[in-house]
Write a structure and sequence with these properties.
By secondary structure, the protein is of the alpha+beta class. The protein has five helices and eleven strands; from the N terminus they run αααββββββββαβββα. Strands 1, 2, 3, 4 and 5 form a five-stranded antiparallel beta sheet that branches. Strands 8-7-10-11 form a four-stranded antiparallel beta sheet. The chain is elongated, with a radius of gyration of 18 Å.
Length: about 210
């Protein structure tokens, strides 16, 4: 699917939901994470210091990104505020199926009524616990793109870093008397996050005696 340019189109008509799913996947397939983010209910500025994983530079560098294979018909709640829609997509040779949820947003000022993808903050992105146990000055990168700020700006209430589906080769450069550099594969195995990578950074920190 070719990359898409311009802002996401707003569509309040439930008949347009499959098309919005296609637009969303088009952005992901094209490496346009920032545009995809604007189609969700996540209140994060993609240009913020703590959000390099949902910026275009890091996401576009990934070898495998989601490619939509099939989108089902939306199932809208009785009150018309929520809609579930089944999708099948591929990341490389791996085919995955998920049920996505969208929420209806009323017209606000000049922004027309529209639907947004619902992201569960408890499982969004990946677990970065363990980063705090690594020495000050530790640097992180993905395919040469510096993403250190994501680990420097973790809040006290959550150690999760927002990231879309894909496999991130996270290179960790640890300073010290004997500098260490290691690459850990972080596989975000659903569209909006993963639990399978939990403990990876903690395990790395433990291996260094952190």
């Amino acid at each position: 699917m070719a990359p898409l340019d311009g802002p996401p189109e707003f569509d309040a008509d439930t008949a347009g939901l499959p098309g919005q799913v296609e637009t969303f996947f088009g952005y992901l397939a094209g490496g346009q994470a920032a545009a995809a983010l604007r189609m969700t209910d996540v209140a994060i500025d993609e240009s913020a210091p703590g959000a390099p994983f949902i910026g275009d530079e890091a996401y576009e560098s990934l070898m495998d990104r989601p490619s939509l294979k099939n989108v089902g018909e939306p199932k809208v709640s009785d009150d018309g505020t929520l809609a579930d829609i089944d999708v099948t997509y591929a990341i490389g040779a791996d085919e995955r199926s998920e049920t996505l949820q969208l929420a209806y947003v009323d017209k606000q000022g000049d922004i027309p009524a529209h639907w947004v993808f619902v992201v569960d903050p408890a499982s969004a992105g990946f677990d970065a616990a363990g980063a705090a146990d690594l020495p000050s000055g530790t640097r992180y990168s993905v395919n040469g793109v510096d993403v250190t700020s994501a680990f420097e700006n973790l809040s006290g209430s959550s150690s999760r870093v927002m990231a879309f589906a894909g496999t991130y080769p996270l290179e960790i450069a640890v300073p010290g008397t004997t500098p260490t550099t290691e690459t850990i594969a972080i596989d975000v195995d659903t569209l909006f996050g993963t639990m399978s990578a939990d403990g990876k950074l903690s395990g790395f920190a433990d291996s260094l005696g952190g």
